[in-house]
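User: Reviewer 2 asked us to show a designed sequence for the structure in our supplementary figure. I'm pasting the C-alpha cells here. Could you produce the per-position amino acids so we can include them in the response letter?
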C-alpha cells in the first residue's frame, strides 16, 4: 500500500499467479483423500471418521459444546481435557456450521482445507516477494507435499494457523501494519506458537521506526498479542484459575519443556535402535530435515522476521518433553520450504518432491490405520 509516512506500494494481492499455488495445494489434497479412502477400506469406517481422528475429536467437541468450567475432578492429575486446545479454529468451525447448515464434522474439514488453501496462496506470495516466482512455486510444492502436510486434510488447527501466520509475515514484508497485527492476533488465538508473531511484529516495527520514522508501525506489535491475551483472560474467568491451560498441557497431556533433554534421548535411542519405534524414527528424520532447512535458510539471508518466526516455531518443538508432533511443527515453519526451494532445482528438486509426496501418503496411512504414528 502507499501512504504519506513511508509505506511502499505492495503488489496486488489477487493475481492470476495465485491459480498456481491453489492448484498445487488442491492436487495434494486429492492424494490425501485417496489415502483416506484406502485407510477406510483397510480399517472399515466412514470416511468422515478417518478425517477427525486424533486431535480432531477434541476440536469438534469445543466447536459443539465449548469449554467445560473446570478440569476433570478427582484426586489425581486432570485428564486430557480440551482446555489444552486454543479456541481460534473451533470458533471458525462453529461459525461455518451455523452459516452453512453443514454438520460440524463437515464444517471442520471444509474450514481446515479452505484455510490451508489460503495459506498456500499467501506463502506463494511471500516467497515470490522474497525470492521470485519460480522459487515461490517450488516452495508451495514442497509445502503441499511435505510429509507432515497430510494434517491439512484432517480437522487440525495447522491450516488456520498457517493462513494467519503467512498473512502476518506477508503484511510485515509489505509494511501493512494493521493487517499484520490482526493476523498475528488471530494466530495467537489459534496456537500458542502464534505468540512468536508478536516478536516478529516488534522487530519489524522497531526497524521501521528507527530507519524511516514510521510510527504507525507500532500498531502491529500493539495488536499482535491480543488474541492470546483474550484467550488467557477468558479461560481464567471461565474456570476460575489462571493455570488451567498449563495444568491441562502438562498434567493431562504430558506437554512440557525439558530444554531438549527428551530430544537428545530420542536421537540417542534412534541411533542405538533405529527401527524399534516408528514414531521416534519419523521424529528424528524430521529433525534431520529441519537442520538442513535451517542451514539453507541461513545461507539464503532471508528477511529477519522469517528467521525469527522459524526459530520461534522450532524451539518449542525441540525443547518439548513430547516429540511426536515434530512433523507438524516443521510444517508450520514454512520459511524452511522457501529456503529449500531456493536451493533445490531440476532433477534434485523433482526427486525430493517425489520422495516427500510418498512419505506424506505413507505417514497418513500409518496414522489412520494404526497406533504406530501419532500425528
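Assistant: Here is a per-position design you can include in the supplement:
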Amino acid at each position: 500500500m502507499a501512504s504519506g509516512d513511508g509505506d511502499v506500494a505492495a503488489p496486488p494481492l489477487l493475481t492470476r499467479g495465485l491459480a498456481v499455488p491453489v492448484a498445487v495445494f488442491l492436487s495434494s489434497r486429492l492424494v490425501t483423500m485417496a489415502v483416506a479412502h484406502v485407510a477406510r477400506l483397510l480399517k472399515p469406517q466412514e470416511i468422515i471418521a478417518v478425517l477427525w481422528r486424533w486431535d480432531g475429536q477434541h476440536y469438534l467437541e469445543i466447536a459443539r459444546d465449548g469449554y467445560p468450567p473446570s478440569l476433570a475432578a478427582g484426586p489425581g492429575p486432570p485428564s486430557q481435557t480440551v482446555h489444552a486446545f486454543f479456541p481460534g479454529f473451533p470458533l471458525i468451525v462453529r461459525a461455518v456450521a451455523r452459516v452453512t447448515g453443514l454438520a460440524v464434522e463437515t464444517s471442520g474439514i471444509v474450514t481446515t482445507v479452505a484455510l490451508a488453501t489460503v495459506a498456500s496462496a499467501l506463502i506463494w506470495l511471500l516467497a515470490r516477494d522474497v525470492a521470485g516466482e519460480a522459487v515461490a512455486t517450488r516452495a508451495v510444492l514442497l509445502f503441499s507435499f511435505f510429509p507432515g502436510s497430510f494434517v491439512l486434510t484432517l480437522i487440525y488447527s495447522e491450516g488456520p494457523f498457517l493462513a494467519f501466520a503467512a498473512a502476518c509475515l506477508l503484511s510485515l514484508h509489505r509494511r501493512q501494519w494493521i493487517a499484520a497485527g490482526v493476523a498475528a492476533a488471530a494466530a495467537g488465538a489459534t496456537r500458542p506458537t502464534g505468540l512468536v508473531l508478536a516478536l516478529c511484529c516488534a522487530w519489524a516495527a522497531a526497524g521501521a521506526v528507527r530507519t524511516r520514522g514510521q510510527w504507525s508501525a507500532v500498531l502491529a506489535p500493539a495488536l499482535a498479542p491480543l488474541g492470546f491475551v483474550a484467550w488467557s483472560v477468558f479461560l481464567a474467568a471461565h474456570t476460575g484459575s489462571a493455570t488451567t491451560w498449563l495444568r491441562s498441557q502438562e498434567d493431562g497431556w504430558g506437554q512440557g519443556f525439558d530444554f531438549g533433554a527428551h530430544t537428545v534421548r530420542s536421537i540417542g535411542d534412534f541411533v542405538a535402535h533405529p527401527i524399534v519405534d516408528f514414531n521416534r524414527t519419523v521424529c528424528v528424520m524430521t529433525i534431520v530435515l529441519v537442520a538442513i532447512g535451517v542451514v539453507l535458510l541461513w545461507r539464503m539471508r532471508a528477511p529477519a522476521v522469517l528467521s525469527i518466526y522459524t526459530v520461534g516455531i522450532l524451539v518449542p518443538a525441540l525443547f518439548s518433553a513430547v516429540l511426536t508432533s515434530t512433523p507438524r511443527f516443521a510444517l508450520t515453519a514454512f520459511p524452511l520450504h522457501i529456503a529449500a526451494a531456493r536451493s533445490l532445482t531440476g532433477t534434485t528438486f523433482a526427486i525430493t518432491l517425489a520422495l516427500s509426496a510418498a512419505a506424506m501418503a505413507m505417514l497418513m496411512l500409518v496414522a489412520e490405520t494404526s497406533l504406530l504414528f501419532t500425528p
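For the response letter, you might also mention the following. Residues 104-131 form the longest helix (28 residues). Residues 129 and 173 are 8 Å apart (CA to CA).
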